[in-house]
Amino acid sequence: MGERCGEGGEDLRAGTVIVRAGEVLRPESIGALLSCGVREVEAFSRIRVGVVSTGDELLEGLIENSTQPEIVSFFSSRFTEVEAIGPVRDRPSEIYEAVLGSVERNNITVVTGGSSVGEHDHSRVSVSSMGEEVFSGIGLKPGRTLSLYRVKGRPVFVISGLPGAAIVSLRPFVAFLLQALMKSKPRVLHVDRLAGLQIGPDEAWAVPLDLAWSGQGIAMMPMHNRGGTHRLSLVSRAMWTLYVDGSCSDAFLMEAGGIDRTIV
Question: Phi/psi of residue 84, each to 5°?
Answer without folding.
Answer: -90, 125
